[in-house]
Structure formats: structure tokens, C-alpha cells
Request: fold
Amino acid sequence: MNAEEQVRKVTEFIQNYFKENNLGGVIIGISGGKDSAVALALFVKALEKENVIGITLPCHSNEQDKIDAIKLADFYGIKLLNIDLTSTYDTFTEEAMKLEEFIVSEDSEINLKPRLRMASLYYVAQMLSLRDNKRYIVAGTGNKCEEYVGYFTKGGDSVSDIKVLADFTVEEVYQLGEVLQVPKDILYKTPSDGLSGKSDEEKLGVKYSDIAKVINGEEVAEEIANRIKEMHNKNQHKFVIPTYYK
Reply:
């Protein structure tokens, strides 16, 4: 991949979309990881820093992620807001525990966090659109490997108004980050969801490089290939909602 050319093309894609739809700015959740960092850099390049608003949304989170998010905001010169969702999350789960049907579900608790975060991003986008008299939209930051295996939360980080990394594998995101001069300690930080205490690859049980190979039709060990294809097939419900038409 020619990373410099792709940076130019993505920049043009963003600029054209904003011009065609009379948009004024973008809201982006800054996790302190590579994907949101590279997406942030692309939007700043395309729209200028005053039209990019970053938000940190801690929720029983790793404190280092917020530190890295602040570092990124300072590096690119954008405004960074903070909405701490910890008490909101705690109140919700406390209410849920009162249900007769309540059982402890680690997945439900983990997935609640990105759903609260996405609601917060859209809340801020609408609020600032009114305040600034220009339309803000919400950026998606997922990469192609995550998209392929469905490694995202339905109704959470799957929701956005524009995606700029969804056709780039993890390795390609690194290449874009190099061109965009994303701070290396953030670009090459071990990818994790910041929620479960595990790295992405630990949760997935496969390496991102192997997912990229499967996507590109390259050979990997049969067991690994089957695991990746199983995740891809199992998560198709995240992409297509069955709809009855009369």
C-alpha cells in the first residue's frame, strides 16, 4: 500500500463528503489507541483542528488511556472534552440488579460501556451543532480486521456517521499513522478495548496479522483460519438486520 497516497485520498474523501453535505465539524471519541489517533489525524488534516472535537469517555477505564488521549489532543491542537460515565454506568447496573431476571453477565456489562459512549457522542454532536450553528457528525474509528470478525459492539462503536479506517487492516493503519506522524508510543501501544483488561488479540484468540491474511486470501494455519471464519460468520447479525417488507 502507498500510505502517502491513501492519506491524500482519505483526506479528499472527508473534504468532499463535508462539502457535499454542508457539514461543519466532527466529534470523535479518543480512546488513546492507534485507531482513534489515526482517525483524529486524518480529520485534522482534512478539516483543520478547530472543526474537530475530541471526547474522552472514561467508565471504569484504564487511566493511561485518558493520559494518552490528552497527549493526542495537545499534539494535534484540538479541543478535548471529558464526560465521565462511571456513575451513569453504576446507576444503570444497580437498577438492572433489581430485576427479577437479573444474572451476572460479563459481556452485557462490557458492552454497556460502548453503548453509553456512543449515546454520549451523539448527544454532544447535536448540542454543539446548535451552539455553533454548524452540523457536527460522529466519526467511526474501527479498522478492517475488527470489521471482518465483528469485533465491535452492536449499537455501540458500530454506530457512526462516517468511517475512514474500515477498509484498512491493522498493519495498514500503522502505515497511515507513520505518514501522519502519530506519536509512536500511542501508535504502537498494544491494542485493547480498555474495558476487559485484556488485549484485543487475547480476547479474539488470533493475531490481527492472521485476520489480514484471511481477508487477503493468504494461507494461515487451518485451526486459525477456521476460528477467524467462525467469528466472521457468527457476527453477520451485526451487519444485516432482518427486515420484513409487506
